[in-house]
Write a structure and sequence with these properties.
This protein is of the alpha+beta class. Helix content is 54%, strand content 18%. The chain is built from 8 helices and 5 strands, in the order ααααααβββββαα. A 5-stranded antiparallel β-sheet has the order 1-2-3-4-5, sandwiched between helices.
Length: 211
């Protein structure tokens, strides 16, 4: 509870320079997340769904709802802005595939969890907000997992995911730090170099886990 209050206070302080999204926008973002959760529960979490079918849904339901270009611009920084369209497309393909693997690993570990969507919190980023979520176990006692999905309002009024904050840890900030270290050692085409590193990490994810 303390973390939640502090998070809200920080967002309120640093976000005062931006116009707040309307109540209708907040409701639209929450409704969007609730619809995604319903799809996840129906098409991914059910045990009788074949894994190949689940894999398709990870992309259709989750990754397709991320603004990958906005995320990539943030986590890569200057090399993204300097890259041409072809290199950006190659990077996005690698990054998209890796995100599917990350979601696959996360959701395949769930068994009896319940996902609850809460309200919204302001963001310091223009036209963005956070949608709160908790994941609770039906059978095990303990604290629920707190998740905040950062969502950006698109020009068409739809909302896309730009970050996910799990127990206070930002995916985008963590990737930015990790990729910055890789880029510091890169020579030549930095975005292509980073894409190859992501492909190599994806291959490690795809290896069968030792029991």
């Amino acid at each position: 509870m303390l973390k939640k209050i502090l998070f809200a206070l920080v967002c309120a302080v640093i976000g005062t320079s931006y116009a707040q999204l309307s109540e209708a926008d907040n409701k639209a973002a929450v409704d969007k997340m609730k619809a995604l959760v319903t799809d996840v529960e129906d098409k991914i979490l059910k045990r009788d769904i074949p894994q190949d079918e689940k894999n398709k849904h990870f992309d259709e339901i989750l990754v397709s709802q991320m603004d990958l270009e906005k995320v990539s611009s943030f986590i890569v920084g200057k090399p993204w802005k300097e890259a041409n369209s072809a290199d950006k497309d190659k990077f996005l393909k690698s990054f998209r595939h890796f995100q599917i693997l990350r979601f696959k690993e996360t959701f395949n570990s769930y068994s009896d969890e319940v996902i609850e969507v809460g309200g919204t919190l302001p963001s310091s980023s223009k036209n963005q907000l956070f949608v709160e979520m908790q994941i609770k176990s039906k059978s095990k006692q303990g604290e629920p997992i707190d998740i905040k999905w950062k969502m950006a309002k698109e020009n068409n009024g739809d909302f896309k995911i730009t970050d996910v904050v799990i127990e206070g840890v930002s995916m985008a900030a963590s990737l930015k730090q990790e990729y910055s270290a890789i880029l510091n050692n890169a020579t030549g085409n930095k975005l292509e170099y980073l894409a190859k590193k992501i492909d190599a990490k994806a291959k490690e994810f795809e290896k069968p886990k030792k029991k």
